[in-house]
Amino acid sequence: MGRLVVIEGLDGAGKRTLGxxxxxxxxxxxxxxxxxxxxxxxxxxxxxxVRDALHGQLGDLAHSVHGMAVLFALDRRDAAQRIRSDLVxxxxxxxxxxxxxxxxxxxxxxxxxxxxxxxxWLTELEVERFGLPVPDLQLLLRVPPELAAxxxxxRERTESDRQRDTFEVDGGLQRRCAxxxxxxxxxxxxxxxxxxxxxxxxxxGALAGTVLAGHAPxxxx
Length: 221
Known about the structure:
221 residues, Rossmann fold, 12% strand, globular, Thymidylate kinase
């Protein structure tokens, strides 16, 4: 059985870049890796509804924290069997955003912390009710919110298909979200966490070794 490894972080943190480097490092060690990114825009109707709502095309739906969280969760529920099958066929299933993204952004929108009502509700929905596979390891790519915002803005200017949505342009939300992520990692929410400094080049070789070893520090590396 393979390991489900999730990369979490703010918009513009560099999750895709870390995923690319970690994939190469894992394959260099002889591991088979498959990747998945949420929301699955263009693949799942719930993800497409998320995209439309975040770009102001579905009336006031984006204002509903719980409504948006359910759409994010339904996208993952639809992919659950694929994840289970991939875990049988591969050593590592590497996922860009998972349940913790929903927890962090929803709690931040409601000005709650990791121990608040929203995170408890979300855990019951995605893990207990929907039965999503629980990660073996969660990587928090930590960057200052200002740096993440600058990267997201640059990406918007240079990539025609990467227009920022209402979550990405909300600086206050991004700062609150960063704090919730820190709390989730510090408490070991849902699965072990490793915090990776996104402001410097990560040692993906060492990270790959930790992933394959099947253990991680209690909260931070």
